[in-house]
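Practice problem: dGTPase
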Amino acid sequence: MKWEQLLRPGRFELKESQSSPTDKSRSEFDRDYDRIIFSAPFRNLQDKTQVFPLPEHDFVHTRLTHSLEVSSVGRSLGKIVGEHLIHKYEELSDLSSTEIGAIVAAAALAHDIGNPPFGHAGEEAISDFFKFHAYGRVWKNHLSVDAWEDMVNFEGNAQGFRMLTAKNHGLKINFATLAAFTKYPRPSLFVDKDKSRRSQKKFGFFSDQSEHYTLLADQLGIPSDKNAYLRHPLAFLVEAADDICYNIIDLEDGCTLGLVNLEESIQLMANILKDKFSAEKLQNYKYPSQKLAILRALTIGKLIEEAAEVFIEREHEILTGDFDKALTDCIPSSGALAVIQKLSVEKIYRSKPVLEKEAAGFQVLEGLLEVFSKALYHKYYQPELYSGQDKSILRLLPEDFDLEEYDGENAYALLRALIDFISGITDKYALSLYRKVKGIALPGA
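Answer key — structure tokens:
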């Protein structure tokens, strides 16, 4: 792969950049950032679970605040790496480190945009509906093998790619930003998965968008191996930004909510800071929240330095595809991060509030998918069972869900539209809609 091609602007509707000659204040990649931050899907992240359900505490993170913080860390990583690249490669002289930082910042800003309500439990709930529920499995005979694989393996990363590229309502961001966003550049059905390659751990686009990624990869010069592609190098930085933030900030949230004690949290971050940690200076801060905030900032700063250094050291291997690991698994603090991850699983991710949220998410999303899936199936495939109740249910679909657009010949498109709707709503709206369609609550009650 070559950097001058990897960083070239261009969108699906325009192979080459078409910047306005009167607007020189923003690069193409700054425009990507702005399009994402002003979009409705990004705005909905304010009411989607990060870890803790619908938090009332002022300092506990939602998907929105998490995404903003990941974007900030990503921008820092991109600028540090960008400085190195611009000094190393003459052909990048027209770029600035700020532009490279903007690519990573925009991709990181969108990294969770495809996540459904109730976090990762929501992903599993959607998959389980098609695997196990009668009105999920009934669609199997109407789908191809790869389309069915998409249904039984819902993936927020692939849903995000779909939301960014959809013909009617996609955000039309640049190829470089899209590729940096795509941490797992392969389809769901991929029989020769190499477990040693981080980029093949999950999948990054659904079967109906394989052509989209092929075009993107061709434009940027990203090679493929069978159905999987190499990662765009900046995707490693997006992943690192996410890893850094959720490890440190989930720990901070866990401490704020009393799931991890303050002394333990301080020691875990001190293990990363090493000689940069000063217990004496920490005593200057009176409140636990202040102690956590200063340590969090210092720790994230240290991890940014380490991740950028690994990227720069392994840059050639990243370009050739020989390096395919998480940067945070290769930094000096990887052992300390592993300890934090282990503790977070035991004390935070398996805490009672989180498990209760996950259990509720399964019920809510299964219930919504059941009533809408059944109504759609009756309408298009069992009209003799299409009832007044089904008609009322389908009237609750959003305005842009044009039922006249679909027919019994394209079950996949119909289901994709349904999942777009269900995965795009917020936690609170999902709960409210579930209560209404199940008759648990009436409008206004």
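Discussion: The chain has 21 helices and two strands. Students who identified this feature from the tokens alone can consider the problem solved.
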